[in-house]
Amino acid sequence: MSSWSPEKLLPEYVRTFESYIPSKPDQELAKLYGCSRIFRLNNNENALGPPPAAQEILKMFDPRRVSNYPSGDSYYLRRKLAEKYGKDPDQFLVGNGANEVIGFVIKAFCEKGNDIITADKTFAVYEWIAKFSGIETRLVPLKDFTFDDDAILRNISSNTKVIFICNPNNPTGTYWSSKKLERFLQKIDKRTVVVVDEAYHEFVEQDDYPDGMSFIDRYPNLVVFRTFSKMYGLAGLRIGYLVGNLKTVEVIRKTCIVYSVNVMAQEAALAAIDDDEHVTRTCRLVRNGKTFLTSELRILGLPYRCGEGNYVMIKLPMNDSLAYRRLMTAGVMVRSMTGFRFPNYIRVTIAHDEAMRALVAALSDIL
Amino acid sequence: MQSLSLRQTRLTINCDQKLTRVVTSFVENAGICFGLEPESALDLTLASEEIFNYLSFTGVQGEQLTLTCRQGGYFVDLEFEFHSEEFGLSMFNLTAANSVENDNAVLETGLLIASRLVDRFSFFRQDSLSMLILEKEKSYPTIGESLEKQPGPLKNSVIKRPDLEEVKLFVRYVTQNYGACVVPSSFQTPGKVADMVKYGHYDVAIASDNSGAIGGGIVWSWKNEKLVEFFGPFVFGQREYSTIPVELADHMISSIARTTAMGLMTQSPSPDLPTDYFEPLGAISSIKPGQESCESNSYYRHLREDPGTSVWAHRLIEEFLIQEYRKHVLARRINLVTSEGENKSQDSVIATELDKSISKATLKPIWWGHDDLSLLHAHIRALVQEGVFNIFFEMDLGRPWECHFTTSLLGSGFEPRLILPYAGSSDILIFQHIGSAGVL
Fold first, then answer.
1. Helix (H), strand (E) at residue B82
2. Which of A14, A15, A321 would best serve as a mutation to test chain B binding (most B beta carbons within 10 A)?
3. In chain A, which residues touch B (CB < 8 A)?
4. What is the C-alpha separation between B31 and B37, in angstroms, rounded?
5. Whether the Cβ atoms of residue B406 and residue B384 lie closer than 8 Å to each other
6. Which of A43, A318, B108, B162 is most buried by its number of CB atoms within 10 A?
7. Is the ipTM of this complex over 0.95?
8. pLDDT per residue over A204-236, tens digit each?
């Protein structure tokens, strides 16, 4: 009589979790919204694509090699990262995008009854992974659009295992200075693991912005995340990494999924990492794009938050998901911010001039 | 909001009339254990007896059936799960009449009695498995006449989740300050609202200051796993340009932003609604007996980037849907239903939700058959005789069979009025009966 219902077998924290539904492919969206082309300004991808050397690797890749497993622990890439940043290769763990390494850390340190702390209005994946792993998330409200260090310290309990700081914060673009980060780490006094997610590290040009890796020797509870998805334009290959103290990384390695990073991603990342010229070109494009966009937004009378990173957050006098749909009909895809708990805001990626002009024209039409 | 875990109990039993007392004893005891007063538990028990009796004499005789009784906080529901394709569901129509023409008619009279003893019912069929769910609500005292002293403008207010005493006080303030058009009917019984909050059927946020004064609030409730309905925001005793309505809306949206909800909707917005947070879906005219007609806008907020979806429709309303979807910039693929000589059921079944305080009835299709036109006419007649002038029909455009009601709806004086995105298995199209109140 009874029918198969897998929900009955699920833990409560999985049953109540909402699966993330990614956007449909561009061609499908173009059909649905009746537009002939789409400017993708929703995912903070690099408009310049990967560095030339990485592109060359991909072009020359021998397809027959995909029948072999990749290096299970990204052996050569870790050695390269160690050489570049003056660390031991075993201080690095490479994952299938930075999202995967978030999971490594939570699984390594948290069990039922523990919690993590992060901000209420930041990158959602820390909260998601904790939730579907049955771990509570304590959300601390941003203060002036910035992670609130004092409030985070007040929220630490004996069950708190990991604190996630997004620096610079996605989507507000605010950041903690070196001084503020150091003060925070001192006050934590090794009570918890502190993750500083530096996904947008290479875009920041401010002198007081910290290089999280430089604190690792003094603060063994600090773990830094970096990615090849943003500045290095390898989002489609999914590759990111974490770096920390040797002992810390050794325990995180227990929950690390080996062989999850494909061979093309490892080799493209290896080729990309030394291209400083690519970083300079991208930063110039972002700087110019921000200057153009913010000037146009002022003319349109739209408030905005333009901080670090290759994105700008814009406040609209309407529901952001309605704005998303209307902008899509003009072929401009943005990120609506309700999911980031910023109702009526959108976040746009800074891209080429043509895309920025299309965005401004479309915004002007929908207001 | 975190809900209390609710209890349930289950009985699997052979469908044999000799076991009727086992069933009635199970239902009565479970009903009382789960919070019903003896009178309400007895109603549910009598309903279960009639249904068990009917099933014992019809297709389920000798087969096993499962009864599940669940605590709902402010109600108890009872689910019958059985294998039968012959269930006399048409007796659950508001318009069903008593008849003793033959043995089967006598049995169906029992179903008619059962349907009138409970507050709501729903019916699902998957392959040959049928599920009939009856709901019986607890009784609560209605709101008293005494007026609460109005709070003054708040200083340094914060938005917070109220405790249950604050919920009841908030409900009193709302009913004192706002008309029936914008206040949910449940607010006539503050104790019921407190139970609905306690058991997770409602979420509430209030604006309060250090002294504990309440200056406003907002209430929301999950219609299904994808759509949240809200009431408010309500504000009392505050200055004209108070930021409280926006803070309440912000709080509610942030609370559900990372949940399964795809949309947020109100069909009875308060005058304090910050409209730039929402999309107007359209207006519906309604009247209360002895009053002027009033027009209320429905507002919606999509909570995500819409990936688009498909809907089913009858060709007679295709053009209306195209226009509406274009107006609201909703990406939809419209598939047309057809009738190509295939068999259809004899009887239609329609569930009726009544809210007499605002003279409103909402019809929801349960089953479609070839008597749909006469059944709709009968419902309209019965409702108008009851003094219900605002009659709506909700069609789930994700269920193709519901679209077969279209011809009869249009033929009996209904008109499509507005679309509620993702309110059902896909969008819901609301029809309103034109002329039952002579107001449109």
1. strand B75-83
2. A321
3. 1, 3, 16, 18, 21, 23-24, 29, 32-33, 42, 120, 124, 127-128, 317-319, 321-322, 324-326, 328-329, 335-336, 338-341, 343-344
4. 8
5. no
6. B108
7. no
8. 999 999 999 999 999 999 999 999 999 999 999
